[in-house]
């Protein structure tokens, strides 16, 4: 038996449940995990743990599963990765490998049935009450279960980590704060001030280009090759500073679910979006994600990838993913006594455009991208992601829309749990403190980025070893993208830094292929 992630039950209780045929009950055991025991695989309801399966094998790393198959590209998944930074649905970079869905119990099919995992969803839990105080209790329960007796916290100047710190302080913890930032950056300044106020130990790291370069060569990390370097950089400080930290480290990953990630930055515009019918969700999601290549550049990619990058094809895949969300909820078996209480679940999946976009964030962005970010630090830190705890997710899903605009729920949590944390600055505002309610500037002009330098030195993405790495790996994508296009993008990145996600996304695909090919050679050598 192998446990990927963390389960709050001990091994003896898990083995007993498996032995007695009660694997379905493990889905709600608490924690973020996938348990693999023989031919049975149990996935918790949390989307935090990436797990993949193919015809003959399954495991956390997509490259490990893909290496057992002839190499091939899933051009639709590659296109979605280049546009959104993650694939959609159950798709992965390989057409023969799928992402395991959370909240399922799966068994390995025999060769006669084509192999692979046969998954069945566990019964849906009873929806939460639509009450903000209940959401605070759910958060505290999630943090209590994740923190243990001692813990650390990845801290920034933002609201996600501040909410987690408020819950930790309320529970009596004194976490070590791990901070990433250059001198003068908002994250570093605010986190340092918080540490001084409460006398908390703090470890500050400035992530350098060499740090990212070293991490990109860590072939044993399951998330390597699934993320552009620009996305991996946000957790790289933990690989450097927290590798020897034996206690769990809480991360604010997924906190955007309670803040409507796809909503307009201006509050009045977000209110108008909240009135849009569900069928407009595709438009709302795709509006900020144009095709990243020009018409001339599209002629330099594989025809199947070019077709997958057609805007109509992208919208069709997003629409398909949204329809699948609705279907999964409508298929859930709920008896007549509970039927009146499932309004919040049905509203989230088939209600307004923002309701459906929130679920898209959880079931697409978090399922693929956040889990890949967490996988990239596996083996280095004992991460915990309380905002992806199913209890918290259920509580947030039940709340009316007003709680999810302007970070209102986050503000409420801080005020209820540790009010003095309101006394520290809020990013992008002129006031010196965090307001209890969304400020007028949010409604009228929208949230702004904090003043001062970015927490990462952006020059590392414009020149030096990281851009050189893009050029060095271009040959591995010859069947996907013409090498001349990669050279042009690297030159553009050096001169203008205009499309870092695209440039380093292609590098990630190169590193993924390198990893798959190395594993395939290892398999052949063993056999």
UniProtKB/TrEMBL annotation:
State the superkingdom. Bacteria
Question: How is this protein named in the record?
Answer: Asparagine synthetase domain-containing protein
Outline the segment boundaries, as ranges, of region: Disordered.
Answer: 96-128
Residues covered by the Asparagine synthetase domain = 139-414
InterPro entries in the record, alphabetically?
A: Asn_synthase, Rossmann-like_a/b/a_fold
């Amino acid at each position: 038996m192998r446990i990927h992630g963390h389960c709050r039950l001990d091994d003896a209780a898990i083995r007993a449940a498996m032995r007695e045929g009660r694997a379905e009950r493990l889905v709600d055991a608490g924690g973020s995990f996938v348990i693999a025991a023989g031919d049975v695989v149990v996935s918790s309801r949390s989307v935090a743990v990436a797990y993949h399966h193919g015809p003959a094998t399954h495991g956390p790393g997509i490259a490990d599963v893909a290496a057992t198959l002839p190499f091939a590209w899933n051009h639709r998944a590659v296109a979605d990765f280049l546009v959104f930074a993650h694939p959609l649905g159950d798709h992965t970079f390989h057409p023969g490998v799928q992402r395991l869905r959370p909240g399922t119990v799966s068994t390995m099919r025999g060769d006669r049935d084509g192999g692979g995992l046969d998954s069945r969803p566990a019964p849906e839990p009873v929806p939460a009450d639509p009450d903000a105080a209940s959401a605070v209790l759910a958060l505290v329960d999630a943090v209590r279960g994740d923190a243990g007796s001692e813990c650390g916290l990845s801290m920034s100047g933002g609201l996600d980590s501040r909410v987690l710190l408020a819950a930790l302080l309320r529970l009596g913890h004194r976490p070590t704060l791990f901070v990433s930032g250059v001198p003068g950056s908002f994250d570093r300044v605010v986190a340092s001030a918080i540490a001084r106020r409460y006398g908390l130990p703090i470890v500050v790291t400035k992530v350098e280009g060499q740090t990212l370069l070293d991490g990109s060569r860590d072939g044993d990390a399951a998330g390597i090759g699934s993320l552009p370097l620009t996305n991996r950089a946000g957790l790289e400080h933990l690989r450097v500073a927290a590798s020897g930290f034996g206690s769990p480290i809480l991360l604010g990953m997924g906190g955007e679910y309670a803040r409507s990630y796809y909503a307009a930055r201006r509050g009045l515009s977000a209110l108008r979006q909240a009135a849009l019918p569900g069928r407009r969700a595709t438009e709302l999601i795709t509006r900020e994600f144009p095709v990243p290549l020009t018409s001339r550049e599209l002629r330099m990619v594989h025809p199947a990838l070019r077709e997958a990058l057609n805007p109509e094809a992208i919208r069709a895949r997003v629409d398909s993913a949204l329809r699948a969300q609705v279907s999964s909820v409508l298929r859930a078996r709920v008896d007549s006594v509970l039927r009146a209480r499932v309004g919040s679940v049905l509203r989230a999946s088939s209600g307004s455009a923002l309701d459906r976009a929130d679920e898209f964030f959880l079931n697409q962005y978090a399922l693929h991208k956040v889990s890949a970010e967490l996988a990239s630090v596996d083996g280095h830190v004992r991460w915990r992601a309380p905002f992806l705890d199913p209890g918290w997710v259920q509580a947030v899903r039940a709340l009316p829309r007003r709680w999810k605009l302007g970070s209102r729920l986050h503000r409420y949590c801080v005020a209820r749990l540790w009010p003095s944390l309101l006394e520290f600055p809020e990013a992008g505002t002129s006031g010196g403190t965090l307001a209890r309610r969304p400020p007028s500037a949010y409604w009228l002009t929208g949230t702004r980025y904090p003043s001062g330098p970015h927490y990462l030195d952006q020059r590392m993405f414009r020149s030096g070893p990281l851009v050189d790495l893009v050029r060095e790996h271009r040959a591995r994508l010859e069947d996907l993208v013409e090498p001349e296009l990669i050279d042009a993008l690297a030159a553009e990145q050096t001169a203008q830094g205009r499309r870092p996600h695209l440039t380093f996304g292609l590098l990630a695909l190169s590193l993924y292929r390198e990893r798959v090919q190395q594993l395939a050679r290892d398999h052949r050598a063993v056999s």
